[in-house]
Predict the 3D structure of the following.
Amino acid sequence: MKITTQTHALAQDLLNFIDASPSPWHAVETARQQLLANGYTALNEADAWQLNATEKYFVTRHDASIIAFTLGTKSLQETGFHIVGAHTDSPGLRLKPQAAFGSDGLVRIGVEVYGGPILATFTDRDLSIAGRVMVRTAKGHETRLVKFDDALLRLPNLAIHMNREVNDKGLKLDKQKELPLIFGECEAGFEADQQFLAHIANALKVEVHHILSFELNVFDTQKGTFWGAEQEFITNSQLDNLASCHAALTAILASHHAASTNICALFDHEEVGSESASGASGSFLSDTINRIASATGLNAENKQRALAQSFFVSADMAHAYHPNHPGAYEPCHHVLVNHGPVIKTNANQRYSTNADTAARFMTLCESAKVPFQQYAHRTDLGCGSTIGPIVAAQLGIASVDVGAPMWAMHSVRESAGVLDHSYMVAVLSTLFQN
């Protein structure tokens, strides 16, 4: 496949999706809006579900996880569920509940490390904040999303004159003492906390005392872009794993009148272990499957038959080979950018792939006329994990771990290939059309 107007446009759509989604809550809202625009009906977990075979549905949990599904034209016990899972969160910095404090004439923002980001990449960037705020109302409280497009925060580097060994030993940041971000100068007559909250209140057009609580993360305000001699690469924050979310969402939106019941499940909290009500270790997916089975009249026996026919694709980005660091990779597993989706395998079940599920995904790639690659981590390096083993264990279904190759995973600025995103959308679309 060569870069065409269509593949370029799809990559641009991905960059736009990421730029609109600087937090998990924004990612779910962006997905929600796209689903509504494509005729999907919103369900509420607190309501009774009545499902129509001709309609398409989605449901959210805690504003940061979302599941969309379409009912197949054939019975569930015949086809099972075709499921693609990804995650809406990315590693980075989260604001503490009482974040702002005054120090040396400046308002600084206390942050907590979320997941495993490359902390040094957050220095000297145009940073801002985004997330959800709980605002007091006459009936209790409601959720408001907030996103500041202008750069509000900064983590300035220490000059090399005070850190002479930085180029030899690398930049190391004390997580407690050296990560607080500079927000602004202290204003006379204002406490630091009130000065910070006033900024949020002003954006939401509420009074400071209306703000009850918030979940806010730091993001890089620089928008995504293309790069390379032929503009064959893309760069942005949160490619891990919003690129997989976008691919899964694009694929299910393109599926029509499929034989199987299709599910696109986007979870929060993967970067911190998925142990939450809205994470993959929670009950969100199994609850949704149970309610689909119940609403379609499936008894317990036939539900188990459906699960035995099901296939789960855990879509999470993969490590592309870096020519400057050949020693970091397992020989014979040099995954290349723009050479197709990666099937990820780990003998210790950090990935859910086995020989059978790898073969099934290879067959899907062949049907989609998409190349594929295989990846295994170096034996002497700890291997990251995904939602694949979690979902496979919970539901007892066949599962494969795959992802598009990328560079600089967990940097504030990651890179991937234009073609690989099109490849991933194509193969996931093939899964949903089967």
The chain has two domains: 5-90+237-433, 92-220. Residues 5-90+237-433 form a domain with the Aminopeptidase fold (CATH 3.40.630.10).
